[in-house]
Prior knowledge:
About 55% of the residues lie in helices and about 10% in strands. The chain is an alpha+beta fold. Strand 6 and strand 7 form a beta hairpin. The chain is globular and about 60 Å long. The protein starts with about 20 loop residues before the first helix and ends with a strand.
Amino acid sequence: MGADPGESGEERADGHADGRVDGRAVERAEQTPEVTPEQLLALLGTPEGRADPYPVYRRLRALAPACRTARGQVYLTGHQDCADLVRDPAFRAQGPDWMDRVSPGWRERPGKVATIEAMLFRDPPDHTRLRRLVSGAFTARRLAALTPEVERLARRALDGLAEAGADGGTVDLQALLARSLPVSVIGTLVGVPEADWGLLQDSMSAMMQVVELTVDEAALAAADRGAEVLMKYFAELVAERRARPTEDLASALVAIRDTDGGLSEEELLQTLLLLFMAGVDTMVNHLVNATAAFLDHPEQAQLLRTEPALGPGAVEEALRYDPPIQILARVAGQDLTIGGAEVAAGSLVVGLLGAAGRDPARYPDPERFDITRTGAASVAFGGGMHHCLGAPLARIESAAFLPGLLTRFPGLRPAGPAVRRGMVLRGFAQFPVAIR
Length: 436
């Protein structure tokens, strides 16, 4: 999901290896009409860039449809180019073979291993095999049967918000959702007992940092510790399901592993870990990003209250307007051309999905948040063979939560400074709200 992590996983887009941002370079980029892609990409790592990357995306788009950096990476801002990137099989995942070449030490990092060897970063035939084994959990029939339970869990999350804000105090919506709706949905599906959800949260948050463009040594060390905790936990869960199977995905995958050898023990653990982490972190970010958009556009919140049938369109618009995954990278499997740029085989091509959602060539008045918008779907869930397996479930969760949130709490308002985190995974470190 992230861009080239460099030699040790710590190099920045602006060339710094220690996590610093060159303030003078940023100032020059802001004040100079003619800037380089490197200067603009450096802005994404600043607090201002994390708070609002969209002006940076617009300036990159103005430079060229495909911006090439001095290191030979190509960054795409157009919707069609990003759609081609995620759908065209000529582009490969940043898998183990590619990482061996660009970052030879990655196999010594548990956080990197647990991520890069998972299905998300694999190509056929391994990706095809692993995805086929998991896809049964996300069939239309299975999701339809799960929908009433998701709606019940959404109501429970809203009850939790009401209880937390009953005394008129401030509630951190990011923290509340991190321990309620998304984790309850994916925990139920995978088979993680509710008593364990809170135990895994800090380790998941730490491990997700390995996909960011900027990862310093402290973050990598935290990710390694998190990976060790999580892999140990899922090894124990697998042992429990072997002894006492239940009707969950963990039990189903254990049965596949033990009966026909369709996946290795390590692949089993990595798959369960990937599904659980992606189902929690990305979903929390999406729900809070969407809530922030509605609070910034109260007329759209009121429109959804009065016309609940707009719910599915509201979900799609929120995904377009401020997606939880902003950046996705692929490796060119052959010499090719994209966005008018010639790309050599083995080169990294980075799709700025957040920029694609605001492409004026695809979306009229793209800076406007409009839940009545129709037309092209966003690339928020990727596409092609790597299209997010959980996308239908994410839409069900979002449609169950957002209209209920706005209807039940019409006086919901920001209640303090919200702090953004991440460039690749766009979300909040905290998002305080008050119920009025």
